């Protein structure tokens, strides 16, 4: 099998970067970037993520929405790591234990600031939350980050 090149290699390197991030030791999740400007995260909510009321705490919503939108935007940038500068959330349904999908889509921006949105889809196929974020190029080269491996 030949190594991937171009955009596909960048997408695989971002997926690797996601898998290597220390924060993801707390979340059973995997990232896929099937195309430029789109990212999907599969993850599972379990009772460890619950607040006192018996449903997923907002940190789970934020993390997955932010990550999906972030990677959708960073799929367009091959040289620098993006940083979240703002993120707005709308939580519409409580998440219980089970599989959840976060889908992120790039909306606008291609130079310095990027806008992307994301939504969470629960095990019943219902939207549980959505969010919109702005992301800015950092000074951090992707190539310098542990986990970002172009193969």
Automatic annotation (TrEMBL):
Q: What InterPro entries does UniProt report for this protein, alphabetically?
A: HotDog_dom_sf, Thioestr_dom
What molecular functions are annotated in GO for this chain?
thiolester hydrolase activity
CDD domains in the record = PaaI_thioesterase
Ranges where the Thioesterase domain occurs: 53-128
Residue stretches spanning the membrane: none
Under which name does UniProt file this protein?
A: PaaI family thioesterase
The organism of origin for this protein: Sphingomonas ginsenosidivorax
Classification from the root reads: Bacteria, Pseudomonadati, Pseudomonadota, Alphaproteobacteria, Sphingomonadales
